[in-house]
Amino acid sequence: MAWRSMQVPEEISGLLTDSSWTDGAESKLVAAVFKVGVDSGEEKEKGTINNEQLLQTITQSGLSRTVHLKISYVSGEEVQTLPGAKSPLQLKKIIHEHPAWNGWISSEGDLWLEQKVNDLSTLTKKEAYIGVDAFGNLKLFKGPPVQEKVLKTFFQMDMGSLKSSLPESIWKELHEGIRVQDIEEYNSVLSTFSDYAREASEHVMQNKQ
């Protein structure tokens, strides 16, 4: 079955944290951490500002700052922390090198730059599976579901309706894990099974009553 050409429902937004994607070799080059799904918090606290305001703040303060580069994907986020505190001149250069990124100064005084990408991360594409756990929760896994390396939880499904509506081959594939390697496959799988989300099923039943 081709898992493509569908859209992700808005309600599918639950994310879990996992740092197991981090490449050890990369971490030796820079102080970096890869996280799936949890916002750093600084953006919500301070809010992003335009580059002109950001440059003005950096100039007026004259402070050296730690820099974090965050790429937010559909499946989670990657955060890279550059080594060492950067001088105001270095900070301005970094901002100019990332003109389309959103920026803000955190409560700790660090500079954050974020880019949003409507795609799966390269690391996710390597080993991502969508499957179901023993409790009927649809999840994103690193590797097959049997390994229980959960990266992200979407929603709980009405397994009774699912089993009675779909072919046995799809039921089996769901338990073994559906390999997703790009955004089209990811969206298609979520769209297909969102019809069997428990909240959606209960809403349909209430409407019938």
Task: Give a verbal description of the structure.
The protein has 209 residues and is of the alpha+beta class. The chain folds into two domains: 24-116, no CATH class; 123-208, Bypass-of-forespore C, C-terminal domain (Alpha-Beta Plaits). Helix content is 37%, strand content 23%. It has helices at 24-29, 42-46, 51-61, 88-97, 122-127, 159-165, 168-176, 183-194, 198-208, and strands at 31-35, 67-73, 76-81, 102-105, 111-116, 128-132, 137-142, 150-156, 178-179. A five-stranded mixed beta sheet has the order 1-3-2-5-4. Helix 3 packs antiparallel against helix 4 (88-97).
Primary descriptors:
Alpha-Beta Plaits; alpha+beta; 5-stranded mixed β-sheet; 9 helices; single chain; disordered C terminus; 209 residues; 4-stranded antiparallel β-sheet
